[in-house]
Design brief:
about 325 residues; alpha/beta; seven-stranded parallel β-sheet; two-stranded parallel sheet; 13 helices; 9 strands; about 15% strand
Length: about 325
């Protein structure tokens, strides 16, 4: 198929591009910065400049496409607000897809978005879901709740650097999934007609609390972790404070997600119907144990090599110079 991938430079988007190319699809990426997206071109994707917040740029980008995979999301550092990007921009994109006569649209929402109307990101995702369902397009809505890739910076890196691991005061279990698995299943969705006009969770094999992740990291790295807890009250204060400044609106909206973590309700769901519909074996899905095992094995091996080279260099410096005279 001829696919347009939106959000292609993101953590998930780049994996979708990789999987789509590996499966033989023709891939076009909507990008705002060609330099930052250069690696996608090297992989074999076509880059086209555009911005779904500027609807006049979309018709040319959509021309000739057969399906759109929308993996874009606002970032805390974006100059536009979350509403402008994740609502106004997505409405522009969906309407442009309708006008272009493209029938297939895959959208990434968030698990349980409808249950948190007071959390801006969840509310916007839920509203976009409803708008997409009313569009008449053959949509598929995929609802992840967290990616394993984000856990490296949150847990593994500070631990190996002997720094404290910061976690919230609540212990809501989250079923994280490897973005490579999400990407693989996403491309499979395109190949199965039964997935049209359906909504599916896109989550890992088990929901993990922060404490369980820390225990896992300690076992695999043979290191003890220093834990620092952030009280929910502090996160709420920071959210209110950042609302005072226009340039920190996106940060404030992200901090509101703390209310989801404070609910204590697991971000988890059954994937049985998903695997059955797609004809995929759950055993092919990466577990968090396997993900961290691979990471720590690779990193600890590298650290040992670095220590070996350092010690070797020190020994050379200590060796006295012997004159040949």
């Amino acid at each position: 198929m001829k696919l347009l991938i939106v959000g292609a430079t993101g953590t998930l988007g780049r994996q979708i591009v990789r999987s789509a190319l590996d499966e033989g699809h023709e891939v076009r990426c909507l990008v705002r910065n060609a330099r930052k997206a250069a690696f996608l071109k090297e992989w074999g994707a076509e880059l086209m400049m555009g911005d779904f917040c500027k609807p006049e740029t979309l018709p040319r980008v959509l021309e000739g496409m057969e399906a759109v995979i929308d993996a874009a999301a606002a970032r805390p550092t974006d100059s536009l607000s979350m509403k402008e990007i994740d609502w106004n921009g997505k409405v522009n994109l969906i309407q442009a897809v309708q006008k272009a006569g493209i029938d297939r649209y895959i959208f990434f929402s968030l698990l349980n978005a409808e249950k948190y109307p007071d959390v801006p990101l969840m509310k916007i995702k839920h509203c976009t879901e409803k708008f997409l369902k009313e569009s008449g397009l053959n949509y598929t809505i995929l609802r992840p709740c967290g990616f394993m890739q984000g856990l490296i910076g949150q847990y593994a890196v500070p631990m190996l650097d002997n720094q404290a691991v910061w976690i919230s005061g609540e212990s809501t279990p989250i079923a994280y999934m490897d973005t490579q698995d999400v990407a693989r299943l996403t491309i499979r969705v395109l190949e199965v007609p039964e997935t049209q006009k359906q909504t599916y969770p896109m989550i890992g094999t088990k929901a993990w609390t922060p404490e369980e992740i820390i225990d896992l990291c300690e076992r695999l790295s043979d290191k003890r972790v220093k834990i620092a807890r952030v009280p929910l009250g502090l996160l709420r204060f920071l959210r209110g404070f950042t609302r005072f400044f226009q340039w920190t609106y996106n940060i404030s909206d992200r901090l509101a997600f703390a209310e989801v973590l404070a609910s204590g309700k697991p971000l988890n769901a059954s994937m049985d119907d998903v695997y059955k519909t797609l004809g995929v074996d759950v055993k092919e899905t990466t577990t968090l144990e396997a993900y961290f095992q691979e990471y720590f094995s690779r990193i600890l091996k590298k650290l040992k090599e670095i220590d070996y080279e350092k010690n070797k260099a020190k020994k050379k410096k200590k060796t006295p110079f012997k004159s040949s005279v």
